[in-house]
Amino acid sequence: MKTSLRAYDHALDYERVGQFLVETYRESGKHINWLQARWEYMNFHPFVRVLDLSRIGLWESGGQIVGAVHPEDPEGGVYFELHPDFGDLRAEMLEYAEAHLALDNDGVKRMRVFINDLDEELQGIAADRGYAMDGSAEPMTRFDIADEIPAHPIPDGYRVSNLTLDGDAVKESRLFWRGFNHGDEPPGDGREDREFMRSAPNFDTDLNIVVVAPDGTLASYCGTWMDPVNHVAYVEPVCTDPDHRRLGLASAAVLAGIRRCAERGATVAFVGSDQPAYLSMGFAPHHRTSAWAREWS
User: Fold this and answer.
1) Is 3.40.630.30 the CATH classification of the domain at 146-266?
2) What is the pLDDT of residue 165?
3) What is the pLDDT of residues 269-283, one digit of tens each?
4) pTM of the full structure
5) What is 104-146 written as a DSSP string?
6) How far is Cα 162 from Cα 160, in angstroms, rounded to an integer?
7) How far out from the chain centre does Cα 215 lie?
8) Which residues lie below 8 Å from residue 124, measured CB to CB, with a gap of 6+?
9) Cβ distance 227 to 234 under 8 Å?
10) What CATH number does the domain located at 4-138+288-296 have?
């Protein structure tokens, strides 16, 4: 089938790419591309402000998106979203990424592409062009929702709640700063970044769970996102303040978020991690996407 390539236009294409991701999951019944929720999270993360989204490449056939190649953050990682009927685009997509998405350091170009470990064809194309696995990978684990999800116990004085639109933004910012090990105290109140993230079309305070410490600070956080078409929940992000770790707070928040998604019809949840804490909750390995790297002049 004939395809055409063009540059991404955020105003026109943001929702279309998201719908493409929803449809490829629905049609295949598999997590072959990103979930729509991850695409949305990327586009409403503060990192996106330093990305030139016009460098994203889109392939269309019959007026429908059938492929996309894009970054996620400023670190140079590149991802492929591809309709399974258009597998012959793989080589062209990799060539496009090299021309438009590689990092350039004084004439030396570098790129890391993330390839599903089951996609042997793209692995072979990458290897032929000089790429090699660099040892890093993104695991994806799956939680099948079959029975009632029990609450995870937490110490007395802590309570599980959800975000409110008023009053939590500065507390959230501090939790994110400390929870992702950036330092003791954030350099500002972070309100602008948090309000930007909350502006995502499918952001729902009821699906963003916090654990409140006895002193009223936010101790742990779990964001969950819901794809109602495919009955899929996605867990992103999760963090705990260093002063409140090893108390089971993150597990309590994650399970509370999944429980709320289940109440809205979710039958499965995914998280991009295989840390023991997730496996102990009931997540199981689903697939892995490995990084392949290359440098050239």
Assistant:
1) yes
2) 64
3) 999 999 999 999 999
4) 0.96
5) EETTEEEEEEEEETT-HHHHHHHHHTT-EEEEEEEEEEEEE--
6) 7
7) 31
8) none
9) yes
10) 3.40.630.30
